[in-house]
Write a structure and sequence with these properties.
Layout: E1 5-6, H1 7-13, H2 19-27, E2 31-33, E3 36-37, E4 44-45, E5 52-54, E6 57-58, E7 66-71, H3 93-96, E8 101-102, E9 111-117, H4 120-127, E10 135-142, H5 147-155, E11 169-176, H6 178-188, H7 197-200, H8 212-219, H9 228-231, H10 238-247, H11 254-263, E12 267-274, H12 281-288, E13 292-301, E14 304-305, E15 315-317, H13 320-330
Parallel strand pairs: 9-13
Antiparallel strand pairs: 1-4, 2-3, 2-5, 5-6, 7-9, 7-15, 8-9, 10-12, 10-13, 11-12, 13-14
Helix pairs in contact: 4-13
């Protein structure tokens, strides 16, 4: 960054409008430099040293901005779209005017980590095939994912257009056969409207073991509330362990769960790591092995992981440590 620059250029860079907009702000006395009203929009300031304020609010100059967004479903990963709501619409005006853009793509119906920046070199490095930066996803898929699927992903699968993907990593976190899925719902309950599975299942540790209600009816005793890990006697089947694993996953939405239950199909909760970003790639890779993605969430881009404190639609600036970690992978010189 240059040691000094024009005041109007600095404020325009930070999203305070055009040069004419800033000239009007200066005329109104809304801009101060080191506590004194700015008299000339063309005056030179030192961004690292001078205190610049607009309407009393300090302006923190940054050459580039890096925004972590938890993209919600139903929003497109674009800077503008004539028909659809875009991810930039989730940001305040001052950031939208900076010229931020999404790094890579995330399907409209997918959720999760999306990085927005105005650093073109960083973005190119993170998406370049030569860099091969891993993007990690969690997905709920119809069907029982197994070792054969993991081997296919590791070798690269052939998509519907004949393209063979780069090797990818597939980890099965939980699988439930169709009958077990229905029984899990009967024990854990269905998630209420507007909540993820973790909000609707209740606390796994207080779910009654199978047969507890029948035993209570026979003996009149108070219902026992044992966790799957506490029984140890085989009365709690493995499917409840899988259901518990799903119950602990934040943001897994109701519609995906309901579709799986309605179909009566087996489901798997998986993690996928890919190094490229073809159109609908994760979905098409699972289609190639005979499975369908019901829900998709990106959780990491290289070393950058989605902040669990961010709800869908929320965003925050990257920390200096996160910026540095990304710079080591994505910034090309």
């Amino acid at each position: 960054m240059k040691p000094s620059m024009r005041l109007d250029k600095m404020l325009a860079h930070e999203g305070y409008g055009t040069r004419n907009d800033i000239r009007r702000l200066v005329r109104k006395g809304a801009v101060t430099v080191n506590g004194r009203p700015a008299s000339d929009p063309g005056m030179h300031v030192r961004p690292r040293e001078d205190e610049v304020r607009v309407h009393g609010r300090a302006v923190a100059y940054r050459e580039f901005r890096y925004i972590m967004l938890h993209k919600p479903a139903g929003v497109v990963s674009a800077t503008e779209d004539a028909r659809e709501r875009t991810v930039l619409g989730l940001l305040p005006d001052v950031l939208r005017r900076r010229g931020l853009f999404p790094v890579g793509r995330l399907d409209k119906d997918a959720e999760g980590l999306l990085l927005l920046t105005d650093d073109g070199k960083m973005a190119h490095g993170l998406t370049s095939p030569r860099k091969a930066v891993y993007k990690i996803y969690r997905a709920l898929v119809r069907g029982v994912a197994d070792a054969a699927d993991a081997e296919a992903f590791a070798a690269g699968v052939t998509l519907d257009d004949g393209y063979r993907t780069m090797p990818a990593r597939l980890t099965v976190l939980a699988s439930m056969p169709a009958p077990a899925l229905a029984e899990a719902v009967s024990h854990y309950g269905e998630p209420p409207d507007g909540e993820g599975i973790s909000g609707g299942f209740g606390t796994p540790e207080t779910v009654a073991a199978p047969g507890a209600e029948r035993a209570q009816a026979k003996s009149g005793a108070r219902e026992e509330t044992l966790s799957p890990d506490e029984t140890g006697d085989g009365t709690v089947p493995e499917m409840l362990r899988a259901a518990r694993r799903l119950a602990e996953e934040p943001f897994l939405n109701r519609s995906a769960w309901e579709e799986a239950v309605r179909d009566g199909a087996a489901v798997s909760w998986v993690e996928v790591a890919i190094r490229e970003g073809k159109f609908h790639q994760v979905k098409r890779m699972f289609e190639a092995v005979g499975k369908k993605v019901l829900y998709l969430r990106r959780v990491a881009i290289g070393p950058l992981r989605l902040d669990p404190a961010l709800a869908p639609g929320e965003w925050r600036e990257l920390t200096p440590e996160e910026e540095e970690a990304l710079r080591g992978q994505g910034r090309e010189t």
